[in-house]
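Problem: given the chain below (96 residues), write out its structure.
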Amino acid sequence: MRPSVAVLLVAGSGTRLGDAAGRPKSLVEVAGRGMLFRAVDALASVGVEEFVLATGFREDLLKEATDALPQRFTLCRNDEYASTQNAISLLRCQEA
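Solution.
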């Protein structure tokens, strides 16, 4: 049985990556393609159809990026992403 839903933790700002454009780390490009898009492609190739994103930093950019993709996305915001751990971001996705 293949999973049909994946939860991706994309709340962080990626300050250690030093992205001058101020993008969330999941949108920082590696070899010309954003890390989020690479993850979505890989997961979609094994049957994942829906993605739940635990967001925080620059959720607006993540929304804009995912609106252009054919997969279904649900964004779950953790307003306290900068001062909490990944588990709190994951809890914000509980309803989704």
